[in-house]
Amino acid sequence: MAKKSAKSSTFIWEGKDKSGRKTKGEVEGTSIALVKAELRKQNISVTKVRKKSFSFGKSKGGKIKPLDIALFTRQLATMMKAGVPLLNAFDITTDGIEKPAMKELLLKVKNEVAGGTTLAEALRAHPQYFDDLYCNLVASGEQSGALETLLDRIATYKEKSEALKAKIKKAMNYPVAVVCVAFIVTGILLVKVVPQFEEVFQGFGAELPAFTQVVIQISNFVQQWWLAAIIGLAAIGFMIKKLMQRSKAARDKKDRLVLKLPVIGPILEKSAVARFARTLSTTFAAGVPLVDALDSVAGAAGNVIFADATNRIKEDVSTGQQLQFAMKSSGIFPAMAIQMVSIGEESGSLDEMLDKVATFYEDEVDNAVDGLTSLMEPLIMSVLGVLVGGLIVAMYLPIFQMGSVV
Basic and acidic residues: which segments have biased composition (predicted)? Predict the structure, then answer.
């Protein structure tokens, strides 16, 4: 009969490395003795080892967000530029992080690197947090011996990308907020206020104005079917979400539709151009060949129209065509961006020109979002005024008619 293998557990350890510096981390193992033996092979003098305890029902520290990855990259780049060795930089960075989930992720990456794995390969083991673009740039930095420079570029790229995403969310959330506030205020009036007036109107004995009758009928419908309406809307939203997850055709159609929306469409289009230029500038400046860099750009496009256009540009460039002509033939890039790329290709400073294009369109998005916010503030007041004012007029219209008769 085969012997049952021992169950692996996570152990927390503390000790000193071969230079005498204090260090700590986490490692998988079957017993404390085996963990100590494994750490001794790594030239670590162990002072303390204990099994990691897990408490059920307790949060592991929340979801790791892209902004957390951007902050970690910036800290790692800063310390490596200051001459701090990679593993020590990981220790310092991990000690300064309060989110347990992020701390656990960095400890895993650090332990893999300490075991002899390259940083790029250690990061590739966690694709949900470190995408291909991130890992490819780290690999280029390790191969060229300029890891700190590449980490600095990645940090800048991630920071600007997240800032751009935040602006787009701000632009999208404002109209949604207007609709939600309008629905909530209207719902409260229909459920709480209109029924009070209806009881008063029942004693009038006269026919109510058509407008008032319509509002009362809507109020009765909402009172009777509000729960079914909420469940129905939630079910529709759930089905749409699942459809978007499973159907590429539905996602493609949605991407094409959003670019045609008034006000929002131009903002999304400018953000896509900024993302294209920022990603291509970062990868090309890192020494990645243009054709390979366009692969990363297509993956980071965020919109099927720009992803398809980038793939066509890649095919054209791979046949020897200049980037400026390939972008022009795609028909979706603005003339200014194409002209800047043309200057960059002719002067041999394509990465710098692309960086300027990205900065220009990021500023354009910022200004457009600020303008939308300024526009939406009076619009909110107008929408709420029409809704609330209309309901009030509908309720007081019978009273006004009685007063005119008297």
Answer: 14-24
Rounded to whole angstroms, how far apart are CA atoms 265 and 257? 9
User: In angstroms, what CA-CA distances link 168 with 131, 196, 364, 367?
Assistant: 21, 43, 12, 11
**Residue 269: its H or E element:** helix 264-285
Distance from C-alpha of 298 to C-alpha of 313, rounded to nearest angstrom: 10
DSSP 191-241: IIIHHHHHHHHTTT-SPPPHHHHHHHHHHHHHHHHHHHHHHHHHHHHHHHH
Helix, strand or coil, per DSSP, at residue 208: coil
Overall pTM > 0.85: no
pLDDT digits (tens, 9 = 90+) for 261-309: 887 888 888 888 988 888 888 888 878 888 888 887 887 777 888 888 8
> Nearest 5 degrees, angle CA 338-CA 342-CA 346?
170
For the cut 50, the answer to whether the pLDDT of residue 3 exceeds it is no
Mean pLDDT of the chain: 81
List alpha helices for 286-349, DSSP H. 290-299, 304-318, 323-330, 335-347
